[in-house]
UniProtKB/TrEMBL annotation:
Organism: Bacteroides finegoldii
Source taxon at top rank: Bacteria
Protein name as catalogued: FrrB
Signal peptide annotation: 1-28
Keywords attached to this entry: Signal
Amino acid sequence: MKTTINSKLGVITVALLLSGLVPSTMMAQDKVEASIGADLVSGYIWRGQNLGGISVQPSLGISYKGLSLGAWGSVGIESKDAKEFDLTLGYSIGGFSVSITDYWFDKTYTGDVDEYGKEIYTTNKYFQYGAYSTAHVFEAQVGYDFGPLAVNWYTNFAGADGVKENGKRAYSSYLALSAPFKLGGLDWTVDLGMVPWETTFYNGYTSGFCVTDISLGASKEIKITDSFSVPTFAKVTVNPRTEGAYFAFGLSF
Protein backbone atom coordinates (compact mmCIF):
# COMPACT_ATOMS: atom_id res chain seq x y z
CA MET A 1 0.00 0.00 0.00
CA LYS A 2 1.29 3.44 -0.86
CA THR A 3 2.16 5.74 2.00
CA THR A 4 1.32 9.45 1.84
CA ILE A 5 3.16 11.97 3.99
CA ASN A 6 1.76 15.50 4.44
CA SER A 7 3.83 18.39 5.85
CA LYS A 8 2.22 21.80 6.33
CA LEU A 9 4.24 24.80 5.23
CA GLY A 10 4.76 27.69 7.57
CA VAL A 11 4.78 28.00 11.33
CA ILE A 12 2.20 25.83 13.06
CA THR A 13 0.98 28.58 15.31
CA VAL A 14 0.24 30.82 12.32
CA ALA A 15 -1.65 27.99 10.65
CA LEU A 16 -3.77 27.53 13.76
CA LEU A 17 -4.60 31.23 13.86
CA LEU A 18 -5.60 31.22 10.20
CA SER A 19 -7.55 27.98 10.29
CA GLY A 20 -10.71 29.77 11.34
CA LEU A 21 -10.35 32.45 8.66
CA VAL A 22 -9.22 30.49 5.59
CA PRO A 23 -11.52 27.96 3.87
CA SER A 24 -10.46 24.34 4.32
CA THR A 25 -10.08 23.86 0.56
CA MET A 26 -7.50 26.62 0.41
CA MET A 27 -5.65 25.22 3.42
CA ALA A 28 -5.39 21.86 1.64
CA GLN A 29 -3.67 23.54 -1.29
CA ASP A 30 -0.91 24.79 1.02
CA LYS A 31 0.35 21.29 1.78
CA VAL A 32 3.35 19.56 0.31
CA GLU A 33 2.30 15.97 -0.35
CA ALA A 34 4.80 13.16 -0.84
CA SER A 35 4.21 9.54 -1.73
CA ILE A 36 6.25 6.37 -1.96
CA GLY A 37 5.15 2.95 -3.13
CA ALA A 38 5.75 -0.03 -5.38
CA ASP A 39 3.77 -2.39 -7.59
CA LEU A 40 4.51 -6.06 -8.18
CA VAL A 41 3.15 -7.07 -11.59
CA SER A 42 2.97 -10.40 -13.40
CA GLY A 43 3.78 -8.67 -16.70
CA TYR A 44 4.83 -5.19 -17.80
CA ILE A 45 2.32 -4.19 -20.49
CA TRP A 46 2.55 -0.58 -21.72
CA ARG A 47 0.31 0.93 -24.40
CA GLY A 48 -0.43 -2.48 -25.86
CA GLN A 49 3.20 -3.57 -25.87
CA ASN A 50 4.88 -6.33 -23.85
CA LEU A 51 7.91 -4.73 -22.16
CA GLY A 52 8.78 -7.50 -19.71
CA GLY A 53 7.67 -10.30 -17.41
CA ILE A 54 7.29 -10.25 -13.63
CA SER A 55 8.52 -6.84 -12.46
CA VAL A 56 8.83 -4.63 -9.41
CA GLN A 57 7.87 -1.03 -10.16
CA PRO A 58 8.75 1.51 -7.44
CA SER A 59 7.50 5.10 -7.40
CA LEU A 60 8.32 8.28 -5.51
CA GLY A 61 6.62 11.64 -5.85
CA ILE A 62 6.10 15.07 -4.38
CA SER A 63 3.46 17.69 -5.21
CA TYR A 64 2.48 21.21 -4.20
CA LYS A 65 -0.40 23.35 -5.45
CA GLY A 66 -0.90 21.27 -8.60
CA LEU A 67 2.80 21.07 -9.45
CA SER A 68 4.32 17.59 -9.16
CA LEU A 69 7.62 15.80 -9.64
CA GLY A 70 7.70 12.03 -9.74
CA ALA A 71 10.12 9.17 -10.28
CA TRP A 72 9.06 5.73 -11.51
CA GLY A 73 10.99 2.60 -12.35
CA SER A 74 10.64 -0.99 -13.45
CA VAL A 75 12.97 -3.91 -12.73
CA GLY A 76 12.20 -7.33 -14.20
CA ILE A 77 13.29 -10.60 -12.59
CA GLU A 78 14.67 -11.90 -15.89
CA SER A 79 18.13 -10.77 -16.95
CA LYS A 80 16.91 -9.85 -20.44
CA ASP A 81 14.41 -7.32 -19.04
CA ALA A 82 15.69 -3.76 -19.28
CA LYS A 83 15.66 -1.60 -16.15
CA GLU A 84 13.57 1.54 -16.64
CA PHE A 85 13.86 4.88 -14.85
CA ASP A 86 11.43 7.73 -15.60
CA LEU A 87 11.14 11.28 -14.29
CA THR A 88 7.95 13.32 -14.75
CA LEU A 89 7.33 17.01 -14.12
CA GLY A 90 3.66 17.90 -14.28
CA TYR A 91 0.98 20.44 -13.44
CA SER A 92 -2.74 19.90 -12.98
CA ILE A 93 -5.69 22.09 -12.13
CA GLY A 94 -9.22 20.80 -12.06
CA GLY A 95 -9.43 18.12 -14.74
CA PHE A 96 -6.67 19.67 -16.89
CA SER A 97 -3.10 18.33 -16.81
CA VAL A 98 0.20 18.79 -18.64
CA SER A 99 3.52 17.04 -18.10
CA ILE A 100 6.95 16.26 -19.48
CA THR A 101 8.46 12.80 -18.95
CA ASP A 102 12.03 11.60 -19.40
CA TYR A 103 12.07 7.84 -20.12
CA TRP A 104 15.33 5.88 -19.86
CA PHE A 105 16.26 2.19 -20.20
CA ASP A 106 19.60 0.78 -19.10
CA LYS A 107 19.95 -1.40 -22.20
CA THR A 108 18.53 -1.74 -25.69
CA TYR A 109 18.03 -4.90 -27.74
CA THR A 110 19.97 -4.63 -31.01
CA GLY A 111 17.79 -7.11 -32.86
CA ASP A 112 20.70 -9.52 -33.31
CA VAL A 113 21.80 -12.72 -31.57
CA ASP A 114 25.26 -14.10 -30.91
CA GLU A 115 26.66 -17.44 -32.12
CA TYR A 116 24.88 -19.19 -29.25
CA GLY A 117 21.51 -17.70 -30.11
CA LYS A 118 21.56 -15.27 -27.18
CA GLU A 119 20.06 -11.82 -27.76
CA ILE A 120 22.60 -8.99 -28.00
CA TYR A 121 21.98 -5.79 -26.03
CA THR A 122 23.79 -2.46 -25.91
CA THR A 123 24.44 -0.84 -22.52
CA ASN A 124 23.12 2.72 -22.22
CA LYS A 125 24.73 5.48 -20.17
CA TYR A 126 22.32 7.67 -18.22
CA PHE A 127 24.20 10.96 -18.63
CA GLN A 128 24.63 10.59 -22.38
CA TYR A 129 22.47 13.20 -24.11
CA GLY A 130 23.91 13.30 -27.64
CA ALA A 131 21.38 14.10 -30.36
CA TYR A 132 21.95 10.72 -32.03
CA SER A 133 23.37 8.68 -29.16
CA THR A 134 21.07 9.19 -26.17
CA ALA A 135 18.85 6.46 -24.74
CA HIS A 136 16.49 9.03 -23.21
CA VAL A 137 13.07 9.70 -24.73
CA PHE A 138 11.37 12.99 -23.87
CA GLU A 139 7.59 13.08 -24.06
CA ALA A 140 5.03 15.88 -23.60
CA GLN A 141 1.50 15.18 -22.39
CA VAL A 142 -1.69 17.21 -22.30
CA GLY A 143 -5.04 15.92 -21.14
CA TYR A 144 -8.37 16.53 -19.51
CA ASP A 145 -10.37 14.33 -17.16
CA PHE A 146 -14.08 14.95 -17.72
CA GLY A 147 -15.05 12.43 -15.03
CA PRO A 148 -16.85 9.82 -17.17
CA LEU A 149 -14.02 10.04 -19.72
CA ALA A 150 -10.35 11.04 -19.55
CA VAL A 151 -8.51 12.07 -22.75
CA ASN A 152 -4.71 12.28 -22.95
CA TRP A 153 -2.39 13.07 -25.86
CA TYR A 154 1.33 12.17 -25.75
CA THR A 155 4.09 13.22 -28.19
CA ASN A 156 7.82 12.47 -28.16
CA PHE A 157 9.65 15.73 -28.88
CA ALA A 158 13.31 14.83 -28.31
CA GLY A 159 15.71 12.00 -27.62
CA ALA A 160 15.60 8.45 -28.98
CA ASP A 161 12.28 8.83 -30.76
CA GLY A 162 11.12 6.58 -33.60
CA VAL A 163 11.48 7.54 -37.24
CA LYS A 164 9.37 7.49 -40.39
CA GLU A 165 10.13 5.36 -43.42
CA ASN A 166 12.16 8.27 -44.86
CA GLY A 167 14.39 8.27 -41.77
CA LYS A 168 13.10 11.56 -40.32
CA ARG A 169 11.96 11.96 -36.72
CA ALA A 170 8.40 10.73 -36.33
CA TYR A 171 7.42 12.80 -33.29
CA SER A 172 5.75 9.58 -32.21
CA SER A 173 2.37 10.23 -30.60
CA TYR A 174 -0.27 8.35 -28.71
CA LEU A 175 -3.92 9.15 -27.94
CA ALA A 176 -5.44 7.49 -24.88
CA LEU A 177 -9.10 7.41 -23.82
CA SER A 178 -10.07 6.05 -20.41
CA ALA A 179 -13.54 5.52 -18.94
CA PRO A 180 -14.00 4.38 -15.31
CA PHE A 181 -17.11 2.72 -13.90
CA LYS A 182 -18.23 0.57 -10.97
CA LEU A 183 -19.71 -2.89 -11.29
CA GLY A 184 -20.10 -5.84 -8.93
CA GLY A 185 -18.24 -4.12 -6.10
CA LEU A 186 -15.14 -3.45 -8.20
CA ASP A 187 -13.67 -0.31 -9.79
CA TRP A 188 -13.37 -0.89 -13.54
CA THR A 189 -11.66 1.03 -16.35
CA VAL A 190 -11.94 0.69 -20.12
CA ASP A 191 -8.90 2.00 -22.03
CA LEU A 192 -8.53 2.68 -25.74
CA GLY A 193 -5.12 3.66 -27.19
CA MET A 194 -4.28 4.79 -30.71
CA VAL A 195 -1.13 5.66 -32.67
CA PRO A 196 -2.06 8.47 -35.11
CA TRP A 197 0.76 8.24 -37.68
CA GLU A 198 3.74 6.20 -38.83
CA THR A 199 6.62 5.55 -36.47
CA THR A 200 9.07 2.85 -35.47
CA PHE A 201 8.58 3.71 -31.79
CA TYR A 202 5.40 1.69 -31.30
CA ASN A 203 4.90 -1.99 -32.19
CA GLY A 204 8.17 -2.25 -34.11
CA TYR A 205 6.77 -0.18 -36.96
CA THR A 206 3.37 1.43 -37.44
CA SER A 207 2.65 2.65 -40.98
CA GLY A 208 -0.22 4.96 -40.07
CA PHE A 209 -3.23 5.38 -37.80
CA CYS A 210 -4.05 2.25 -35.84
CA VAL A 211 -5.61 1.09 -32.59
CA THR A 212 -2.93 -0.56 -30.45
CA ASP A 213 -4.54 -0.97 -27.02
CA ILE A 214 -8.01 -2.10 -25.97
CA SER A 215 -8.01 -2.89 -22.26
CA LEU A 216 -10.41 -3.75 -19.49
CA GLY A 217 -9.08 -3.50 -15.97
CA ALA A 218 -10.44 -3.86 -12.45
CA SER A 219 -9.09 -3.03 -9.00
CA LYS A 220 -10.02 -3.91 -5.44
CA GLU A 221 -8.49 -3.68 -1.98
CA ILE A 222 -8.05 -7.06 -0.30
CA LYS A 223 -8.46 -6.80 3.46
CA ILE A 224 -5.66 -8.53 5.36
CA THR A 225 -6.44 -7.29 8.87
CA ASP A 226 -8.83 -4.73 10.35
CA SER A 227 -6.24 -2.01 9.81
CA PHE A 228 -4.36 -3.23 6.71
CA SER A 229 -5.41 -3.97 3.15
CA VAL A 230 -3.54 -4.52 -0.12
CA PRO A 231 -4.77 -2.91 -3.37
CA THR A 232 -4.89 -5.41 -6.23
CA PHE A 233 -5.57 -4.96 -9.92
CA ALA A 234 -5.94 -7.05 -13.05
CA LYS A 235 -6.10 -6.04 -16.70
CA VAL A 236 -6.87 -7.77 -19.98
CA THR A 237 -5.24 -6.10 -23.00
CA VAL A 238 -5.47 -6.80 -26.71
CA ASN A 239 -3.44 -5.07 -29.42
CA PRO A 240 -5.25 -5.22 -32.79
CA ARG A 241 -2.11 -3.94 -34.57
CA THR A 242 0.13 -6.82 -33.46
CA GLU A 243 -2.68 -9.28 -32.70
CA GLY A 244 -1.22 -9.65 -29.22
CA ALA A 245 -3.25 -10.44 -26.09
CA TYR A 246 -2.13 -10.09 -22.46
CA PHE A 247 -3.51 -10.64 -18.98
CA ALA A 248 -1.62 -9.02 -16.10
CA PHE A 249 -2.17 -8.99 -12.35
CA GLY A 250 -0.58 -6.74 -9.76
CA LEU A 251 -0.27 -5.82 -6.11
CA SER A 252 0.34 -2.30 -4.80
CA PHE A 253 2.29 -1.55 -1.63
